[in-house]
Write a structure and sequence with these properties.
Length: 301
Protein backbone atom coordinates (compact mmCIF):
# COMPACT_ATOMS: atom_id res chain seq x y z
CA UNK A 1 0.00 0.00 0.00
CA UNK A 2 2.75 2.44 0.95
CA UNK A 3 4.61 1.55 -2.23
CA UNK A 4 1.53 2.36 -4.30
CA UNK A 5 1.15 5.70 -2.50
CA UNK A 6 4.80 6.53 -3.19
CA UNK A 7 4.37 5.73 -6.88
CA UNK A 8 1.37 8.05 -7.06
CA UNK A 9 3.30 10.77 -5.26
CA UNK A 10 6.21 10.41 -7.64
CA UNK A 11 3.87 10.76 -10.60
CA UNK A 12 2.58 13.94 -9.03
CA UNK A 13 6.12 15.16 -8.46
CA UNK A 14 7.07 14.52 -12.06
CA UNK A 15 3.92 16.29 -13.17
CA UNK A 16 4.90 19.26 -11.02
CA UNK A 17 8.44 19.16 -12.42
CA UNK A 18 7.06 19.09 -15.96
CA UNK A 19 4.94 22.13 -15.09
CA UNK A 20 8.00 23.99 -13.77
CA UNK A 21 10.10 23.11 -16.82
CA UNK A 22 7.30 24.21 -19.14
CA UNK A 23 7.04 27.56 -17.37
CA UNK A 24 10.85 28.00 -17.54
CA UNK A 25 10.83 27.32 -21.28
CA UNK A 26 7.89 29.67 -21.76
CA UNK A 27 9.67 32.46 -19.93
CA UNK A 28 12.84 31.83 -21.90
CA UNK A 29 10.88 32.42 -25.10
CA UNK A 30 9.73 35.85 -23.97
CA UNK A 31 11.73 39.03 -23.78
CA UNK A 32 12.56 41.32 -20.91
CA UNK A 33 9.88 43.74 -22.08
CA UNK A 34 7.14 41.44 -20.79
CA UNK A 35 8.63 41.36 -17.33
CA UNK A 36 9.09 45.12 -17.29
CA UNK A 37 5.48 45.70 -18.31
CA UNK A 38 4.21 43.34 -15.62
CA UNK A 39 6.17 44.96 -12.84
CA UNK A 40 4.93 48.36 -13.92
CA UNK A 41 1.26 47.35 -13.73
CA UNK A 42 1.20 44.71 -11.01
CA UNK A 43 4.26 45.22 -8.86
CA UNK A 44 6.50 42.52 -7.49
CA UNK A 45 4.19 41.38 -4.72
CA UNK A 46 6.63 42.71 -2.14
CA UNK A 47 6.00 46.40 -1.46
CA UNK A 48 9.22 46.78 0.54
CA UNK A 49 11.43 45.38 -2.20
CA UNK A 50 14.11 47.71 -3.52
CA UNK A 51 14.13 48.79 -7.16
CA UNK A 52 16.97 47.54 -9.33
CA UNK A 53 18.80 50.89 -9.44
CA UNK A 54 19.21 50.84 -5.64
CA UNK A 55 20.82 47.40 -5.65
CA UNK A 56 22.82 47.37 -8.89
CA UNK A 57 25.08 50.03 -10.35
CA UNK A 58 24.40 52.09 -13.47
CA UNK A 59 20.84 50.89 -14.12
CA UNK A 60 19.20 52.98 -16.84
CA UNK A 61 16.63 51.20 -19.03
CA UNK A 62 15.36 48.96 -16.20
CA UNK A 63 14.79 51.64 -13.54
CA UNK A 64 11.89 50.90 -11.23
CA UNK A 65 11.97 47.14 -11.81
CA UNK A 66 12.14 45.05 -8.60
CA UNK A 67 15.73 43.98 -7.98
CA UNK A 68 14.73 40.31 -7.59
CA UNK A 69 13.70 40.24 -11.26
CA UNK A 70 17.11 41.34 -12.56
CA UNK A 71 18.58 37.86 -13.05
CA UNK A 72 15.45 36.58 -14.76
CA UNK A 73 15.39 39.56 -17.10
CA UNK A 74 19.05 39.12 -17.98
CA UNK A 75 18.43 35.46 -18.76
CA UNK A 76 15.47 36.40 -20.96
CA UNK A 77 17.54 38.91 -22.90
CA UNK A 78 20.35 36.39 -23.39
CA UNK A 79 17.96 33.68 -24.58
CA UNK A 80 15.93 35.99 -26.82
CA UNK A 81 18.92 37.32 -28.75
CA UNK A 82 21.23 34.29 -28.50
CA UNK A 83 24.08 36.16 -26.83
CA UNK A 84 26.33 35.49 -23.86
CA UNK A 85 26.56 37.85 -20.90
CA UNK A 86 30.14 38.85 -21.75
CA UNK A 87 29.12 40.08 -25.19
CA UNK A 88 27.40 43.06 -23.57
CA UNK A 89 28.98 43.23 -20.12
CA UNK A 90 32.47 43.47 -18.73
CA UNK A 91 32.64 40.44 -16.45
CA UNK A 92 33.19 41.31 -12.77
CA UNK A 93 32.36 44.94 -13.65
CA UNK A 94 28.84 44.69 -15.04
CA UNK A 95 28.13 48.38 -14.47
CA UNK A 96 30.66 49.51 -17.08
CA UNK A 97 29.48 50.77 -20.47
CA UNK A 98 32.60 49.77 -22.40
CA UNK A 99 30.82 47.53 -24.93
CA UNK A 100 28.59 48.89 -27.69
CA UNK A 101 26.06 45.98 -27.59
CA UNK A 102 25.06 47.12 -24.11
CA UNK A 103 24.01 50.51 -25.46
CA UNK A 104 22.15 48.84 -28.32
CA UNK A 105 20.27 46.62 -25.87
CA UNK A 106 19.08 49.65 -23.93
CA UNK A 107 17.74 51.14 -27.15
CA UNK A 108 15.97 47.88 -28.01
CA UNK A 109 14.33 47.74 -24.58
CA UNK A 110 12.89 51.20 -25.15
CA UNK A 111 11.86 50.26 -28.68
CA UNK A 112 9.75 47.30 -27.60
CA UNK A 113 8.14 49.29 -24.80
CA UNK A 114 7.27 52.13 -27.19
CA UNK A 115 5.81 49.78 -29.82
CA UNK A 116 3.59 48.04 -27.28
CA UNK A 117 2.52 51.34 -25.74
CA UNK A 118 1.74 53.15 -29.00
CA UNK A 119 0.41 50.30 -31.13
CA UNK A 120 -1.05 47.75 -28.70
CA UNK A 121 -2.50 49.89 -25.90
CA UNK A 122 0.29 48.89 -23.55
CA UNK A 123 -0.24 45.14 -23.94
CA UNK A 124 2.88 43.06 -24.52
CA UNK A 125 2.56 41.91 -28.13
CA UNK A 126 6.07 42.62 -29.43
CA UNK A 127 9.21 41.45 -27.64
CA UNK A 128 12.89 40.95 -28.47
CA UNK A 129 12.11 37.33 -29.24
CA UNK A 130 9.51 38.41 -31.82
CA UNK A 131 12.33 39.33 -34.21
CA UNK A 132 15.52 37.72 -32.88
CA UNK A 133 14.21 34.19 -32.23
CA UNK A 134 17.43 33.30 -30.42
CA UNK A 135 19.68 34.93 -33.05
CA UNK A 136 21.99 37.88 -32.47
CA UNK A 137 20.94 39.38 -35.82
CA UNK A 138 17.27 38.95 -36.74
CA UNK A 139 16.36 37.85 -40.27
CA UNK A 140 14.51 40.69 -41.99
CA UNK A 141 13.35 38.77 -45.09
CA UNK A 142 12.90 35.14 -46.17
CA UNK A 143 15.52 33.44 -48.37
CA UNK A 144 15.26 34.07 -52.12
CA UNK A 145 12.52 31.88 -53.56
CA UNK A 146 11.03 31.13 -50.15
CA UNK A 147 7.62 32.48 -51.17
CA UNK A 148 7.45 30.01 -54.05
CA UNK A 149 7.59 27.02 -51.71
CA UNK A 150 4.08 25.69 -51.07
CA UNK A 151 2.93 25.99 -47.47
CA UNK A 152 2.97 22.83 -45.35
CA UNK A 153 -0.22 20.89 -44.88
CA UNK A 154 -2.17 22.27 -41.94
CA UNK A 155 -1.83 20.33 -38.73
CA UNK A 156 -4.94 18.63 -37.35
CA UNK A 157 -6.96 21.13 -35.38
CA UNK A 158 -7.31 20.35 -31.69
CA UNK A 159 -10.72 19.45 -30.35
CA UNK A 160 -12.33 22.49 -28.71
CA UNK A 161 -15.88 21.26 -28.09
CA UNK A 162 -17.39 19.15 -25.30
CA UNK A 163 -14.40 19.84 -23.05
CA UNK A 164 -14.43 19.10 -19.31
CA UNK A 165 -14.21 21.96 -16.84
CA UNK A 166 -10.92 22.98 -15.24
CA UNK A 167 -12.10 21.64 -11.86
CA UNK A 168 -12.95 18.27 -13.41
CA UNK A 169 -9.47 17.99 -14.97
CA UNK A 170 -7.69 18.91 -11.73
CA UNK A 171 -9.87 16.56 -9.68
CA UNK A 172 -8.91 13.66 -11.99
CA UNK A 173 -5.24 14.65 -11.78
CA UNK A 174 -5.28 14.75 -7.99
CA UNK A 175 -7.04 11.40 -7.82
CA UNK A 176 -4.17 9.96 -9.88
CA UNK A 177 -1.33 11.45 -7.80
CA UNK A 178 -2.88 10.62 -4.44
CA UNK A 179 -4.72 12.29 -1.59
CA UNK A 180 -3.25 14.40 1.20
CA UNK A 181 -3.05 11.23 3.30
CA UNK A 182 -0.71 9.69 0.71
CA UNK A 183 1.54 12.75 0.67
CA UNK A 184 1.75 12.74 4.47
CA UNK A 185 3.58 9.42 4.22
CA UNK A 186 6.12 10.84 1.78
CA UNK A 187 9.06 12.20 3.79
CA UNK A 188 11.64 12.67 1.01
CA UNK A 189 12.18 12.09 -2.70
CA UNK A 190 14.86 12.46 -5.35
CA UNK A 191 14.10 13.27 -8.99
CA UNK A 192 16.64 13.11 -11.81
CA UNK A 193 16.24 14.39 -15.32
CA UNK A 194 17.53 17.02 -17.71
CA UNK A 195 16.76 20.56 -18.79
CA UNK A 196 16.93 21.51 -22.46
CA UNK A 197 17.51 25.15 -23.35
CA UNK A 198 16.33 26.99 -26.47
CA UNK A 199 19.57 26.16 -28.28
CA UNK A 200 19.18 22.42 -27.80
CA UNK A 201 21.70 22.07 -24.97
CA UNK A 202 20.81 19.44 -22.38
CA UNK A 203 21.96 19.63 -18.76
CA UNK A 204 21.59 17.00 -15.99
CA UNK A 205 19.35 18.04 -13.09
CA UNK A 206 18.83 16.45 -9.69
CA UNK A 207 16.15 17.65 -7.27
CA UNK A 208 16.20 16.49 -3.64
CA UNK A 209 13.24 17.29 -1.41
CA UNK A 210 12.47 16.76 2.27
CA UNK A 211 9.01 17.17 3.75
CA UNK A 212 7.36 19.49 4.13
CA UNK A 213 9.16 22.29 2.26
CA UNK A 214 12.92 21.87 1.82
CA UNK A 215 14.57 21.47 -1.56
CA UNK A 216 17.91 21.56 -3.37
CA UNK A 217 18.05 21.64 -7.17
CA UNK A 218 21.47 20.93 -8.72
CA UNK A 219 22.11 21.57 -12.41
CA UNK A 220 25.41 20.48 -13.99
CA UNK A 221 26.50 23.08 -16.55
CA UNK A 222 29.47 23.08 -18.92
CA UNK A 223 31.32 25.56 -16.69
CA UNK A 224 30.40 24.06 -13.32
CA UNK A 225 27.45 23.37 -11.04
CA UNK A 226 24.50 25.67 -10.35
CA UNK A 227 22.47 25.14 -7.18
CA UNK A 228 19.15 26.57 -6.02
CA UNK A 229 17.81 25.74 -2.59
CA UNK A 230 15.20 26.50 0.05
CA UNK A 231 15.52 25.47 3.71
CA UNK A 232 11.99 26.29 4.80
CA UNK A 233 12.80 29.94 5.47
CA UNK A 234 15.57 31.18 3.18
CA UNK A 235 16.21 30.63 -0.51
CA UNK A 236 19.55 30.90 -2.26
CA UNK A 237 21.17 30.42 -5.64
CA UNK A 238 24.79 29.74 -6.48
CA UNK A 239 26.72 29.48 -9.72
CA UNK A 240 30.40 28.67 -10.30
CA UNK A 241 31.29 32.35 -9.76
CA UNK A 242 28.81 33.75 -7.23
CA UNK A 243 26.12 33.09 -4.61
CA UNK A 244 23.09 35.18 -3.68
CA UNK A 245 20.00 35.09 -1.51
CA UNK A 246 16.64 34.82 -3.29
CA UNK A 247 14.06 37.52 -2.63
CA UNK A 248 10.75 38.75 -3.98
CA UNK A 249 9.24 36.67 -6.78
CA UNK A 250 12.22 34.31 -6.93
CA UNK A 251 11.79 33.45 -3.25
CA UNK A 252 8.04 32.95 -3.66
CA UNK A 253 8.58 30.65 -6.66
CA UNK A 254 11.15 28.40 -5.01
CA UNK A 255 9.06 28.23 -1.83
CA UNK A 256 6.16 26.82 -3.85
CA UNK A 257 8.47 24.45 -5.73
CA UNK A 258 9.86 23.13 -2.44
CA UNK A 259 6.41 22.14 -1.16
CA UNK A 260 6.46 18.35 -1.38
CA UNK A 261 2.64 18.29 -1.63
CA UNK A 262 2.45 20.99 -4.31
CA UNK A 263 0.45 18.72 -6.62
CA UNK A 264 -2.52 19.15 -4.26
CA UNK A 265 -2.41 22.96 -4.53
CA UNK A 266 -2.60 23.57 -8.27
CA UNK A 267 -6.00 25.23 -7.96
CA UNK A 268 -4.56 27.76 -5.50
CA UNK A 269 -1.64 28.64 -7.79
CA UNK A 270 -3.44 28.89 -11.14
CA UNK A 271 -5.43 32.09 -11.65
CA UNK A 272 -8.12 32.62 -14.32
CA UNK A 273 -7.75 29.10 -15.78
CA UNK A 274 -9.35 28.23 -19.12
CA UNK A 275 -9.59 24.81 -20.77
CA UNK A 276 -8.41 25.47 -24.33
CA UNK A 277 -8.46 22.18 -26.26
CA UNK A 278 -7.93 18.44 -26.30
CA UNK A 279 -4.50 17.74 -27.78
CA UNK A 280 -1.96 14.93 -28.22
CA UNK A 281 1.32 14.91 -26.29
CA UNK A 282 3.54 12.17 -27.67
CA UNK A 283 1.17 9.23 -27.98
CA UNK A 284 -1.09 10.36 -25.13
CA UNK A 285 -4.22 12.50 -25.18
CA UNK A 286 -4.20 15.53 -22.91
CA UNK A 287 -6.12 18.72 -22.19
CA UNK A 288 -4.47 22.09 -22.73
CA UNK A 289 -5.18 24.64 -20.01
CA UNK A 290 -4.28 28.33 -20.01
CA UNK A 291 -3.72 29.92 -16.59
CA UNK A 292 -1.84 32.70 -14.84
CA UNK A 293 0.95 31.91 -12.39
CA UNK A 294 3.55 34.29 -10.95
CA UNK A 295 2.31 37.15 -13.13
CA UNK A 296 2.67 35.18 -16.37
CA UNK A 297 0.04 33.39 -18.44
CA UNK A 298 1.22 29.98 -19.53
CA UNK A 299 -0.23 26.82 -21.03
CA UNK A 300 -0.27 23.46 -19.30
CA UNK A 301 -0.97 20.06 -20.77
Amino acid sequence: MVEAHVRRCLRGALGGLAFCIMIMNLLAARSHAHMITLQGTQGSGNQAEQPAEQVYKNIQALKGMPASQMKAVMNLISTSVGMRCDQCHVLDAYEKDDKRPKQTTRQMIQLTLDVNKNSFEGQTQVTCYSCHRGRERPVSSPPLGQLAIPPPAPAPRPVTTNLPTYDQIIDKYQQAVGTSAAFEKLRSRVMKGSLTDSRGGSFPVEICQAAPDKMVMTTTLPNGVAVRGYNGTTGWASTPDRQSELKGQELAQIKRSADIARALKIKEESLSPRVMAKITVGDKEAYQVSARADGQRGRLA
